[in-house]
TrEMBL record:
Residues 45-135 form the Ig-like domain. PANTHER family: OBSCURIN-LIKE PROTEIN 1 ISOFORM X1 (PTHR35971:SF3), SI:DKEY-31G6.6 (PTHR35971). It comes from Cyprinodon variegatus (Sheepshead minnow). PROSITE patterns: IG_LIKE (PS50835). SUPFAM superfamilies: Immunoglobulin. GO terms for cellular component: cytoplasm. This is Ig-like domain-containing protein. The keyword Phosphoprotein applies. Signal peptide: none annotated. SMART domains: IG, IGc2.
């Protein structure tokens, strides 16, 4: 003997309607949104766990997490400042089950701000936002992480990296003669 079951659901304002047909007899159940999780039915992507705000020290590694469900499994991307993040260089995107991770190594002030985790499948899409705040200075392995202020914005970076025109140096460097960069001349006394 075979029993035919068919399920369907739809969201209407604050109600979740569940229609159940069993041997041509229909029964209608309704509940407030959130009372029943219809994970067995799948559907459009939905946020299962929202990302938490992260505060990190300049130069450290951070991980942002977003938990998304849906059937079929959604395609998930991360965005920052309206640009999609590609998994390369300091950025690594991965997934562990329904948890989608964005790892950022050696964070700088440029990495601070809001990150959007977007999920889409053939049925729908959703998104969740996380914030990253980058603070302070860091001394690591005799390498100096510096923080400069330009136009009221803190900039931090590793002395060995290009800071896009910002001043960078190695610890214990002494310069006896004035030097110049970008048509500006600085004397050693300017930094004491």
């Amino acid at each position: 003997m075979f029993v035919f079951l068919s399920y369907s659901f739809s969201l209407r304002t604050k109600s979740l309607l569940w229609n159940k047909n069993l041997k041509n007899k229909a029964t209608r159940l309704s509940a407030r949104k959130g009372d029943i999780i219809m994970d067995i039915l799948g559907g459009a992507p939905r946020v299962l766990g929202y990302p938490r705000p992260v505060v990190a020290q300049c130069g450290t590694d951070v991980t942002l997490r977003c938990q998304i469900g849906g059937d079929p499994p959604p395609d998930v991307i991360w965005e920052h400042k309206n640009f999609q993040i590609i998994s390369e260089g300091r950025y690594k995107i991965s997934e562990e089950g329904k948890t989608y991770l964005l790892n950022i190594s050696r964070v700088t002030q440029e990495d601070a701000g809001q990150y959007i985790c977007k999920a889409r499948n053939s049925i729908g899409e959703t998104y969740a936002a996380a914030s990253l705040k980058v603070e302070g200075e860091l001394l690591e392995n005799n390498r100096e992480i510096i923080q400069l202020k330009e136009n009221g914005v803190n900039q931090c970076g590793d002395f060995g990296e290009n800071l896009n025109g910002y001043i960078h140096w190695t610890p214990r460097t002494v310069t006896e003669q004035p030097w110049s960069t970008q048509s500006k001349t600085y004397a050693k006394e300017s930094f004491e």
